[in-house]
Write a structure and sequence with these properties.
The chain has one domain: Glucose Oxidase, domain 1. Helix 2 links the parallel strand 3 and strand 4. With 173 residues, it is an alpha/beta fold. The protein contains four helices and eleven strands; from the N terminus they run αβββαβαβαββββββ. Helices cover 17% and strands 30% of the residues. The chain binds oxaloacetate ion. Oxaloacetate ion binds next to helix 3. GO terms for molecular function: 4-hydroxy-4-methyl-2-oxoglutarate aldolase activity; metal ion binding; methyltransferase activity; oxaloacetate decarboxylase activity; ribonuclease inhibitor activity.
Length: 173
């Protein structure tokens, strides 16, 4: 990729000239004023480097809220989905991810699995997740939206700025 346009939708952007600083650069500059996520998420979207303000969903084996939130305007935000690390059901597939792209979301971080990995890898969307499972989620809509969620010792507060890349995830406290 040769553009430095941050709104570019090129898939699989890993170009070091991208305008966003790397997470390592951010850590060097800001250190422990940021939080860094220890958990080793897999990069499963067509964008590896992404950033934006945090939005959140907390749910477990039920993705109705994920679908609803990603069908609403994202305005460049990153949705952090705390699925409690359950690997039982996929919390996002290609249709929900395509809707996230259409609605202007920068990325989705899922403490749980996705499905349709081949399709996700072709979308201009950041996706970090624990893995994949073909089993569909429940659709009851149980869970919470835009509450602080904690994954290991990192708290993701709605509105906090988050940066993700090949090295990991850093987020404002
Ligand atoms: O509908 C679901 O539960 C997930 C899915 O397959 C999709 O997003 O395409």
């Amino acid at each position: 990729m040769t553009t430095t346009d941050p709104s570019s939708t090129d898939a699989a952007s890993t170009d070091p000239t991208d305008v966003d600083p790397t997470t390592a650069d951010l850590w060097d500059e800001h250190g422990e004023t940021l939080q860094s996520v220890d958990r080793q998420f897999l990069d499963l979207g067509g964008r590896v480097r992404f950033s934006g303000p945090v939005r959140t969903v907390r749910c477990r084996n039920d993705n109705a809220l994920v679908k609803a939130v990603l069908a609403s305007p994202g305005d460049g935000a990153v949705l952090v989905v705390d699925g409690g690390a359950s690997m039982r059901t996929a919390l996002m597939g290609d249709l929900i991810a395509a809707s996230a792209v259409e609605n202007g979301w920068a990325g989705v971080i899922i403490n749980g699995p996705v499905r349709d990995r081949t399709a996700l890898a072709a979308l201009p969307l950041g996706v970090k997740a624990l893995g994949s499972n073909p089993r569909k989620s429940g659709k009851a809509g149980t869970g919470e939206v835009d509450v602080p969620v904690t994954i290991d010792d990192v708290t993701f507060r709605p509105g906090a700025k988050l940066w993700a890349d090949e090295d990991g995830i850093v987020v404002e406290r």
